[in-house]
Amino acid sequence: MTNHDLFQRALKLLPGGVNSPVRAFKSVGGEPFFTARADGAYLWDVEGKRYIDYVGSWGPMIVGHNHPKVREAVERAVRDGLSFGTPCPAEVVMAETLTRLVPSMDMVRMVNSGTEATMSAIRLARGATGRNKIVKFEGCYHGHSDSFLVKAGSGALTFGVPTSPGVPAANADLTLTLPYNDLQAAQALFAEHGRDIAGLIIEPVAGNMNCIPPQQGYLEGLRELCTHHGALLIFDEVMTGFRVALGGAQALYGIEPDLSTFGKIIGGGMPVGAYGGRRDLMEQIAPAGPIYQAGTLSGNPVAMAAGLAMLELVQEPGFYDTLAARTRLLTDGLQAVADGEGVPFSTNRVGGMFGLFFTHEKVSSYAHATAADAAMFNRFFQGMLEHGVFLAPSAFEAGFLSSAHSDEDIAATLDAARIAMRLARAG
Ligand SMILES: Cc1ncc(COP(=O)(O)O)c(C=O)c1O
Ligand SMILES: N[C@H](C=O)CCC(=O)O
Q: What are the required cofactors (predicted)?
């Protein structure tokens, strides 16, 4: 069984041959490989080729793939059944863990994906404020519900459909968009529409137009604006939650949002999302209150077990310091390689998350990110892949490190980068 054979079979039955657009290699060229197994920092494809993996299942695998403690927790949970349709003890432990680690969340509701979490959070914002408009940022991605597929990042940006066909105009009109890291633009928008805005949702570190950290004072400024205008500040921490720090970006930057959304890491690799926040808001969710939201498999016992095992591992002393130091080793190393090869290149990083850009500029906005040389990125991507390093197959996705990535893995990555940078430059 080869990657090519599987992709040909998949193309006949799955749109684009994949179950999520970013997995297809459409923008970088070529065909995706099919993973047979994963362990630690590595993926192996069905042909037996090994890759050092900087995608990490798009963020969740912060302790590496197939970590024994996560796997054993899942195995133990599976023995007791796969899904109950009644409350189970692990949901309560998960809620206790999340609300302890994320102090802005007094209460939490578990769901099955990041999309469900953000979609539910804005319903709550609208229901609680009695207002209809929401604000999001160009290049930020909050899952694929209608309100968010407006100037969206991730695959929507990669494939040139930031505002998707199929989103009714009436829906899109309620979504106001802003440039990321531009506080003046936000002030002007609130001055005009403030009394109609239910909530502002932001990736506190943008990760779906590649990785762009917030500028100093930016998140604080948004917090003040929302408070002043009676709009809810929603941190979408589906990617940044437990990725940039224990407790997420809100812990790192010391900002208290009204609502937060989580996913990825808190599911340990299983399909999980969560939204939570102030008690007076969360008590408006059914059946405590009138705002409806439900899920047949929500709080699934196996998913809770995986997530809890993961959350235990990231609480080990020094976990985030070590992860951040390794990420720095990688990005500094890549910068040195690029400089040595005379390739225009810059990097961003926060905790275990990083961005690579083929430009001399330090990237701090959507405009900078989209102006970087995507063709160069594509050639670099192919060179790295050829030499056994898997980066996200798009110039508009962040990269992720895990605690399983060793100094040797990073050294091997830099060796591959020496060749790939030359390919990128060659054109
Ligand atoms: C910041 C952010 N929010 C929401 C989502 C949606 O999550 P999911 O793909 O689990 O629906 C993602 C990733 O896809 C994300 O990166
Ligand atoms: N950028 C997306 C989420 O973070 C990637 C995951 C996906 O859409 O499949």
A: pyridoxal 5'-phosphate
Specify the residue with its C-alpha closest to ligand 1, atom 4: 142
167-192 core/surface letters (b: 16 or more CB in 10 A; e: else):
beeeebebbbbbebbbbeebbebbee
Measuring from each residue's beta carbon to the nearest atom of ligand 1, which residues come in under 6 Å?
Answer: 113-115, 118, 141-143, 203, 207-208, 236, 238-239, 263, 273
Look up the ipTM and state it.
0.99
Which residue among the candidates 133, 258, 264, 320 is catalytic per the annotation? 264
Provide the edge-to-edge strand list for the sheet that holds 389-390.
35-39, 42-45, 50-53, 389-390
C-beta neighbour count of 100 within 10 angstroms: 11
* Cis preceding linkage at 393, omega within 30: no
CA-CA distance, 101 to 308, in Å (whole number)? 12
The string of pLDDT tens digits covering residues 314-347 is: 999 999 999 999 999 999 999 999 999 999 999 9
Using a 10 angstrom Cβ sphere, with 0-12 exposed, 13-18 middle and 19 or more buried, the burial of residue 370 is: middle
CA distance 211 to 364: 9
Three-state DSSP state, 36:
strand
Give the C-alpha separation, 137 to 226, whole Å.
15
pTM: 0.98
User: What 3-state DSSP class applies to 385?
Assistant: helix
DSSP string, 122-176: HHHHHHHHT--EEEEETT----SSGGG-SS--THHHHTT-SS-TTS-HHHHTTEE
